[in-house]
User: Fold BP74 N-terminal domain-containing protein from Kineosporia corallincola.
Amino acid sequence: MALFAFKQASGGGEFIFELTDEGKINKARKILSGEETSEVHVMGRFRKESKPYNPGYSYHLDPDTVVFFSFAIEVCDANMQYLEDHLDEAGGAFLPGAYWCPWDSRLSREVSA
Assistant:
């Protein structure tokens, strides 16, 4: 298990998420080192439940669904603070299927446990 953080160019602070799959952990580390330059944005299904490692947000990314991407469809793009502010609407017409793919997400660091 490892924790990583990303920021968005559109603001909203930092979002921390958990990875449990060794392949995904290695890919995240390659993104941070600059070795991976193509699939660098974060996507996954959010769960409407807070986690202690990510204070300030009432949702988290399900570690089993996190992937890294180059491009994604517009319907899953949202700012982390906008998602927090409209969490009650999320998962329906807004972010259908609870998929979240912030286009401007950029890994910022690996978080110490």
In short: The two ends are 9 Å apart (CA to CA). Residues 22-33 form the longest helix (12 residues). Residues 2-108 form one domain.
